[in-house]
Amino acid sequence: MTEPGQALAPDQDTFPKLVRANAQRFAHKVAIREKDYGIWQSTTWSDYLEQARLIALGLASLGFARGDKTAVIGDNRPQLYWAVMASQALGGVPVPIYQDSIEKETQYIVDHAGARFAIVEDQEQVDKLLNVKERCPRLEYVIYDDPRGMRAYSEPFLLSLAELQERGKKVEIGQPTYFDDEVAKGAADDVSIICYTSGTTGLPKGAMLSHRNLILTARNAAAFDGVGGDEEILSYLPMAWVGDHIFSYAQSILLGFAINCPESAATVLHDLKEIAPTYFFAPPRIWENILTSVMVRVEDAARPKRAMVHAFLRLAQDIERARLDHRPVPLWRRLLYPLGNLLVYGPLKDNLGLRRVRRAYTAGEAIGPDIFLFFRALGVNVKQIYGMTEASVFITVQRDGDIRLGTVGTPVTDVEIRVAEQGEVLFRSPGVFHGYYKNPDATRETLEDGWVHTGDAGFLDHAGHLVIIDRAKDVSRLADGTMFAPKYLENRLKFSPYVREAVCFGQGRASVAAFVNIDLAAVGNWAERRNIAYTSYTDLAQKPEVYDLVHQEVERVNRSLAEDEALRGAQIRRFLILHKELDPDDEEITRTRKVRRGYIAQKYAALIEALYSDRDHVPVEARVTYEDGRTGTVRADVKIRDARVFAAREAR
Amino acid sequence: MSEAPPPAPLLQVDGVSVRFGALVALSQVSLEIARGEILAIIGPNGAGKTTLLNVVSGFYHPYEGRIVFEGEDRTRLRPYEVAALGVARTFQNVALFKGMSVLDNIMTGRLLKMRGSFLLEALYWGPARRQELEHRAFVERVIDFLEIQAIRKTAAGRLPYGLQKRVELARALAAEPKLLLLDEPMAGMNVEEKEDMSRFVLDVNSEFGTTIALIEHDMGVVMDISDRVVVLDYGRKIADGPPEQVRKDAAVVDAYLGVSHD
């Protein structure tokens, strides 16, 4: 089942065929659990097939034809996974839509996909569709699962899933082989799903993925990372997101492992604890939330307990850091770890529902190294993956024992990666999508000779791990043509607890220079512990000791940049610590704390000029806006420091 | 629903008066509640709305007049006897067991349905266990219905006010009432919470067919969800009819809405 390669057995080359095989192989094995009425209710693989069969036959009784599209909208529910399979069984294409989409977005996708059928969770989704049905001329039937509140609806095109399955039973009596015949007509290269991606610009695009795309990608990724048939996962991320489709649908069906649908969106963390999955995905935001909730509770604990937790967490993090760097771990630390496991790590993991996790993935934005390290130190095998809808998710995965901070891992089996001239990452794999539905222009832009343009700038480091720097359009160049990714450098600087904000300059210049904002709380605390007196942010920022502290951080970043050929040329040559904090009230950063580079460059033009001269200090006078709206001036003499630039060899 | 009143109303209040010493809280009030309807009782502060609910649920006994529930006179019953007949209520000021979990609070709503000896219950054995499971299953249906799964194990006292009100409704529903009395179910709620609560009231009415009488001050809510409105002023009924009609009634406008008419 898990050997790599492109070939698929003809009786197992679509998901409905695989489910049928599972219903024989694992008839009594749990396929889906759902917490309902406070209890985890299980359904087996033979239930899976049976329920989907009745839905399919019910759809057939309404005239479902091969190639028809079915919109699927709702929270993760067994019925909706069955609905996905049912449409595929009849040669149709499910189109999952985000359950929290507003009417306009739902309408756009239903209409653009030309869905004839919609299978939805409840009244909320029905109401949305009723309001937009006029503008979706191809939509004929709306089928809902939860009958609650539906009593007063009399629209002839509305029916409940139970009614649909009743109709299915009648068809089964008249045409007992219909379902199997339709399943047999399915082929590996049929489109199996259309996932609409919510591009940051413009209208959503529907990526078409075939059974072959998903089966091969799911199989390769599972083999690459040792995912087996006994996994338990929590299916809590939207069904419309391709990630849920590959974890909760493709891999679950391919390997026959169980998925668990939470009771409601609000109970996910509870349900996580009850299920204790072995295979888990969470975006960085969720890892961050879990960490925060742990830390808040630790701070509430009695002093001796708090001290113990902090001491053991520090120990575990030191060990993990050494392991990731392939440095030896001192014996006494190794001996203390089991004690920590008994007192802190084990109970903590158990409480969070992460005790049984064999591998947990994170993807999306960059995860902070502290958060990443925290969970790894506890013994939760968190790993970065890099993927996208157009790849059927998996492009790279961090492999066990070969995890490098700041990278997203190595290409999964059969995935090839190429970095284009301008630094854009391209890939080719068995998972490459069949194009965007009814959007050949966008397809042409993205897909070229089998290679997909990711739109991300990155490079392969010396160990063959992919590093993603930024969106390709945000990357610029120094005067000599060296690639310069300001956001990447700034993020690296901000990984230091002492650096709150950073702004890097260098486009069209000979070298890179940086403004740094210190973190007043962290640096203030640091200064107090060293008996360094200060009066204000401005005063603290210009202390020579603080400059020394930041100097170390800058050189740490430079040292890590020197490891990679692509970034080596863009090390930070000179920096200064700004005399005031960048503030949304002064329009220097946005309310969501994104640096407004252009505005800062203009406002602090004199400082930038000084950075690119040979002066070592520059007097400034700045207007600041106070909280109450008054304005005042801050005068300071800002120092400028040169940072050491490293060559490749020194970095190691 | 109000045009063709069914032959036997669920509840009849017939010329009821209540006095506290010299204060006349209700004076000769008569009204009927038909099966399956949502009746709103409105009126200015001190008009006697809560007193009326208290008379219906047996907390007070009227000085004169009769209360007929399902055709039987039961003017003089005690509150627990009224509850056993199928009348459940919520309170103006939330009255939950603050230290108990939401689940346990709702389970108390099933108390009157529980049979069995103290000994069996204490041993949690045989029929007692079976009964407990049945009641728990019913309570879980209510929890699902009111979408409070996430707070099942939370102590009621730690919940925000809007949720406490919802838990109170859940406890009342757990008793499977024929008549549900809600005393200002939306007081102190924000717009979103009010919308949720309105939806739940309507859903309870349509899904379970429960008859509902509610006291409410938010006129928007009253006009939206009730089939019929009764207006009290100084202990007297001054209007009774469909919302649109009551809204236009000059006496009501004077007494309650406080708009001067020229």
What report would you give on this structure?
- The complex is a heterodimer of chains A (652) and B (262).
- Chain A is an alpha/beta fold and 652 residues long.
- Chain A is 40% helix and 23% strand.
- Chain A has a five-stranded parallel beta sheet, sandwiched between helices.
- Chain A is globular, with a radius of gyration of 28 Å.
- Chain B has 262 residues and is an alpha/beta fold.
- Chain B is 38% helix and 23% strand.
- Chain B contains ten helices and ten strands.
- In chain B, the strands form two sheets. A six-stranded mixed beta sheet of chain B has the order 6-7-8-3-9-10, sandwiched between helices. Chain B has a four-stranded antiparallel beta sheet with strand order 2-1-4-5, covered by helices on one side.
- The longest helix of chain B has 19 residues, at 127-145.
- Chain B is globular.
- Chain A binds chain B through residues 36-39, 148-149, 151-152, 263-264, 266-267, 270, and chain B through 136-137, 140-141, 143-145, 147, 149-150, 152, 199, 203, 206-207.
Key structural traits:
heterodimer; A: 652 residues; Rossmann fold; GMP Synthetase, Chain A, domain 3; B: 262 residues; alpha/beta; 2 domains; six-stranded mixed sheet; 10 helices; 38% helix; globular
Rounded to the nearest angstrom, the distance between the terminal CA atoms of chain B is: 34 Å
Strand order of the largest sheet of chain A: 4-3-5-6-7
Number of helices of chain A: 23
Uncertain stretches of chain A: none
CATH architecture of the largest domain in chain A: 3-Layer(aba) Sandwich
CATH superfamily of the largest domain in chain A: ANL, N-terminal domain
Radius of gyration of chain B: 19 Å
* CATH topology tier name of the largest domain in chain A: Rossmann fold
CATH structural class of the largest domain in chain A: Alpha Beta
The SS-based structural class of chain B is alpha/beta
Strand content of chain A: 15-25%
CATH superfamily of the largest domain in chain B: P-loop containing nucleotide triphosphate hydrolases
In total, the number of domains of chain A comes to 3
Please tell me how large the radius of gyration of chain A is: 28 Å
